[in-house]
Amino acid sequence: MELEKLLQKIELLLPEINKEKLEISKTSVGWHLEHSLLIINGSLKGLTMTNPDNYKPKFSIKKFVFLNFGMIPRGKIKSPKQFVPLETPTKESAEKLLNLAKDRLEAVKNLPSRSYITHPFLGDLNKKTTLKFLSLHTNHHLKIIDDILKV
């Protein structure tokens, strides 16, 4: 699913921010929303800060599997500290991150295709691959949220 549509879905989920279901996730809906938005914002900002001439793609089986099958095991990968919400997420804090994500997504549209980020497990990801990564990662967390919200 396209990242813009996923941001719309996040916006619709903001009223559910305090919901939890500990048998599904140790964290709340709000944590998953803010974590996803922190990743989106950090990655989109990263695309603007790299020199496209330095982009060095390398084949990686992890990258191949993730990008082609979208498989992220639940509860197996620890997020880097900068992408973990520091406080209990609020509707206001998530809305700020969401608005920033919308602005940054608009800003990267005109970047060169070889703009890139360096992912700690997947290596260099160009703009198109970064957007795909962000969609897959966000969708992963939205599926967890869907499970939390199931009655």
Describe the structure concisely.
By secondary structure, the chain is mainly alpha-helical. The chain has helices spanning 3-13, 29-49, 61-69, 91-108, 127-149; strands at 116-119, 123-126. The chain is 54% helix and 5% strand.
Question: Can you walk through the features of this model?
Answer:
The structure is a single chain. This protein is mostly helical and 151 residues long. It has one domain (3-16, 27-71, 81-149). The chain has five helices and two strands. It has a two-stranded antiparallel ribbon. Strand 1 and strand 2 (123-126) form a beta hairpin. Helix 1 packs parallel to helix 5 and helix 2 packs parallel to helix 4 (91-108).
Name the shape in a single word. globular
- Summed over residues and divided by their number, the pLDDT gives a mean of 92
How many structural domains does the protein architecture include? 1
SS field, number of helical segments:
5
* Largest sheet, spatial ordering of strands: 1-2
What percent of residues are in strands?
5-15%
Find the count of extended strands (DSSP E, 2+ residues). Answer: 2
Estimated helix fraction: 40-55%
Low-confidence stretches: none
First CA to last CA: what distance?
25 Å
Structural classification: mainly alpha
Radius of gyration: 15 Å
Q: Please provide the ordered H/E string of secondary-structure elements.
A: HHHHEEH
